[in-house]
Amino acid sequence: MKIGILGAGISGLSIGKMLSKQHDVELLERHSIHGGIARTKTVEGVAYHPVGGHCFNSKYPDVMDFVFNEILPKDSWHQVQRNAVIKLRGEEVSYPIEYAIQQIHEFAPELAIDITRDFLSAEDDKVYENLEDWFRKKFGNTLAENYFIPYNSKIWNRPPSEMSPAWVDGKLPIPNKESFFKGLISNESDKMPHASFYYPDTNNQNTFIDKLAEGLTILTDFTVNTIEKKAKKWLINGEKEFDLVISTLPLNILPHLIKDTPHEVLNAADKLRYNKVTTMFWETEETERTWTYIPESYNFFHRYIHIGSFFKPKKNYSMSEVVGEKTREEMIENGKKDSFLKRPIDYNVSEHAYVVFDENYDSATTTVKKYLQDIGLHTLGRFGEWQYYNMDVCIKSSLDLAQKINLA
Ligand SMILES: Cc1cc2nc3c(=O)[nH]c(=O)nc-3n(C[C@H](O)[C@H](O)[C@H](O)COP(=O)(O)OP(=O)(O)OC[C@H]3O[C@@H](n4cnc5c(N)ncnc54)[C@H](O)[C@@H]3O)c2cc1C
Known about the structure:
Blueprint: E1 2-6, H1 10-19, E2 24-28, E3 41-43, E4 46-48, H2 61-71, E5 77-81, E6 84-88, E7 91-94, H3 101-107, H4 109-121, H5 131-139, H6 141-156, H7 177-185, E8 196-200, H8 206-213, E9 218-219, E10 227-230, E11 233-236, E12 240-242, E13 244-247, H9 254-257, H10 263-270, E14 274-275, E15 277-284, E16 291-293, E17 303-305, E18 317-323, H11 328-335, E19 341-349, E20 354-355, H12 361-375, E21 378-379, H13 391-407
Parallel strand pairs: 1-2, 1-13, 2-9, 6-16, 13-21
Antiparallel strand pairs: 3-4, 5-8, 6-7, 10-11, 11-12, 14-20, 15-18, 15-19, 16-17, 17-18
Helix pairs in contact: 1-13, 3-4, 5-6, 10-12
Bound molecules: flavin-adenine dinucleotide.
Protein name: Protoporphyrinogen oxidase
Pfam family, one: NAD_binding_8
GO molecular function, one term: UDP-galactopyranose mutase activity
C-alpha cells in the first residue's frame, strides 16, 4: 500500500518506521524538521526542550523493545534516577507528596497531622462530580487543598472543579491507606514508571528522534490543507495520492481539512479545548534535582525541569514552564522571584501542548472519532487521539495501529 502519514512527530515517525518495512510510506510535515513537540533546540551548546521537559521510560515491554532494539540501542542511553521535589511553604519536599509526610512534619507539624487525619478518613465511593471531587476523595481535603487543587489549577489553567477526572486514570500514583501508612513509618515510596528514566548519552533527545526518522521519506515544509477521498484513494492538497492515510494532526483541526465534513462533526471539533505552554530556558544555580513542582500561586511557573541534571556530566540549566501564553518580559519578571534562576537564555510559546478534559471532552471526541472511523481515516497520537499521552504511549499506540493495519 501507499500510506500517507500526516505529521512527523514521535507518533508519525514511530508508525512510519513500523509500516515502512512492508509498505510505501511518506510523511508530510509542515515544519522544516521532524520531531514535533518532543524536539530539542540547541542554544549556547545546550539542547533544551522548548515545549517542556521530556524524559523517556515505559511500562510497556514492546515499546522498550522497539526503542532499544530497533531505534537507539540501550547502551547509547544513560539512566537517571528521578529526584523530584515540591516547593511547599518555602521548603522542598520529595515527590510524590503522599510519601513526604515525615518531611512536612519537620517544618509544618500541624499540616502533616491534618494531611494524615484527612487521608486516612477520606471516603472514596468511586463517584466523582469533577476532578476536585476526585482529589478530595482519593487524598483527603488537606492534601487536596494544599497541593493537588492549586497545582492542577495551574497546569490546566482552570479550576479542577470544572474538569473531568478522566485524564488522571493511570497517570498519578494513588497510594491506598495501607501504603500511605507505611510511608509514614518507613521509607516506602512510589513505584511509578518514571521513578527512573533514560536520556541519550549525547545529552540531546534529538539523537533518538533523528534515529526514528532515519531512512524515512519525510516531506518537510508541507502543510496539509485539504484531504479528500476520490475513487477509494486519499488526495492530500489535491496533489498527493495514498491508499491509506494516518493523521497525527490535532483532532480539533483535522475535520476542518476534510472535504464535506458534516456540520455536527465540525461543531464537535470546535468544542475541543487545549492549552499552550510557555517556557523559559535558564542558567541556574547548582541542583541535584531532576524537576521541581510549584503548586503555590506566588510564582506563576508550575514546574522547573532541571534539564542539566538529565545530562552526563551535569550542567546548571533548567526550563521553567507555565501553562498559557506569557511574554518574554513576564517570564523574566516572574523568574526574579527565585534567585535559583540566574540568567534567562531562551523563550518559547508552543502551539498544542495539553488537551483539556472539560465537560465536552467525552461527547466531542466520540463524535469526531466516530466520523473518522466511518470514512476510514486513522487518527493517532497525543493530539490525534486527543489524549494525555507521553512519548511511550504514542509509540505503543503506533505499534498497535501498525499491527492492525498489517493484519487487515
Ligand atoms: C510540557 C510537556 C512535557 C512533556 N513531557 C514528556 C516527558 O517527560 N516524557 C514523555 O514521554 N512525553 C512527554 N510529553 C509528551 C510528548 O511530547 C508527546 O507525547 C509526543 O511528543 C507527541 O507526539 P505526536 O507525534 O503525537 O504529536 P506532535 O509532536 O504534535 O506531532 C504532530 C506533528 O504534526 C505536524 N502538523 C501539525 N499540523 C500539520 C499540518 N496541517 N500539516 C502538516 N503537518 C502538521 C506538527 O508540526 C507535528 O510535527 C510532554 C509534553 C508536553 C507538552
